[in-house]
Design brief:
Distance between the termini: 58 Å
Shape: rod-shaped
Number of strands: 0
Structural class: mainly alpha
Number of helices: 1
Largest sheet: none
Length: 46
């Protein structure tokens, strides 16, 4: 791999890593909210 290609890969990682982390955090929070909502609906007998 040439130096330029290595540099580009490193820059791509910098761009994608925060976005990936945000997706993970949002995904976990949304899953948690759906789980809570589902439990609330079950408790209400819906």
């Amino acid at each position: 791999m040439s130096r330029a290609a290595g540099q580009k890969a490193a820059e791509d990682d910098k761009v994608h890593t925060p976005r990936y982390a945000l997706c993970q955090i949002y995904g976990d929070n949304i899953g948690f909210l759906f789980k809570q909502t589902g439990q609330s609906l079950q408790a209400l007998g819906l």
